[in-house]
Specification:
The protein has four helices and five strands, in the order αααβββββα. The chain is of the alpha+beta class. Helix 3 packs across helix 4. The termini are far apart.
């Protein structure tokens, strides 16, 4: 590693800059999200496809990319939920994360990200409940 950021982190920052430029130019943000998912392989792709289906079916969030990852934004363009594949940072699990605009507040302590290796039917129901709470 050269400098304070890993190769993967530097790539994510470059992706964020490219996303901002593409959004200003009026690019199809959902197409970029689908392309990011299509670039994944194996379990990462299966999980991302499932998350995409659940988000687009059960919320009004718009698909886009965020640091090169599939993400879903509210009407103000603020990312509410994102998917980070395991391969991106060479870790053993993917992450489903919620940003501050997600309405998940529950007292003084609540989870904002979830490690995921598989999404069973029960897990999908739990995720839909989180998405519903996050967007209300």
């Amino acid at each position: 590693m050269s400098g304070p950021f890993s190769k993967e982190e530097r790539a994510a920052m470059r992706a964020a800059a490219a996303e901002a430029k593409a959004a200003k130019a009026g690019a199809d943000l959902e197409e970029a999200c689908l392309a990011a998912i299509a670039d994944m392989t194996g379990t990462d792709r299966e999980l991302a496809e499932t998350v995409h289906r659940l988000v687009t079916t059960h919320t009004t969030l718009g698909a886009k990319t965020w640091y090169g990852m599939p993400a879903y934004a509210n009407a103000d363009g603020k990312v509410v939920v994102f998917f980070q594949c395991a391969a991106k940072f060479k870790v053993r699990y993917a992450t489903i994360g919620f940003q501050p605009d997600a309405n998940l507040d529950d007292g003084d302590l609540w989870p904002t990200s979830y490690a995921v290796t598989k999404l069973t039917t029960a897990d999908q129901k739990q995720l839909v409940a989180l998405l519903t709470k996050a967007t209300n």
